[in-house]
Amino acid sequence: MPTEVSALARNVVRAVDPDALRYFDADAQAYFERGFPRDRGDTPLGSGLESALVALTPVALYVAQKVADHVLDEAIEQGRRKIARSWPRRRNRDSALRDLKPLDDQQAERIRRLVVEAATRRGVEADVATGMADAVLAHLPRHDA
Asked: Is 81 exposed, middle or buried (0-12, 13-18, 19+ CB in 10 A)?
């Protein structure tokens, strides 16, 4: 399980819904084994409840991976193309987050928009997505204002 991506996602879950932390490890393991859960259509009892609820941990992991991908893409743009081509993206996510230089305001705003967009696309309500973005940015290094 990618450690930096998981740490970022765990901090997001802790900030948005601390009670969901008790399920984090099991949900994370399932996410990394099977990917993001797809809408199954009909639920076993036909209640529709399953599609109405969005598990926070998979969304937090998805968002953390998107942030890591963004950070990695920024590093690639700054001259690391040769190294990045020789390593699969999955391996670089952790190193991109671990080696991240402090973000300026523009970079932080791009990450904020990315998190909110990624979370809402996965079914999270706007206020929760904003909380997730706040938690992501609280975890990443920032330039002093």
From this structure: exposed
Q: How far is it, in rounded angstroms, from Cα 145 to Cα 102?
A: 11
The pLDDT assigned to 51 comes to: 43
Percentage of the residues of the chain whose pLDDT score is greater than 90: 47
Burial bucket for residue 40 (CB in 10 Å: 0-12, 13-18, 19+):
exposed
Say if residue 129's pLDDT is above 90. yes
Please list, residue by residue across 5-22, b when 16 or more beta carbons sit within 10 angstroms of its beta carbon and e when fewer do. bbebbbbbbebbeeeeee
pLDDT, tens digit, 9 for 90 and up, residues 4-61: 999 999 999 999 999 999 999 999 998 988 887 665 444 454 444 444 446 889 999 9
Contact status, residue 28 vs residue 61, Cβ threshold 8 Å = yes
Say if CB 93 and CB 33 are below 8 A apart: no
Cross-strand partners of 142: 103
Q: At what angle do helices 24-34 and 3-16 cross, to 10 degrees?
A: 130
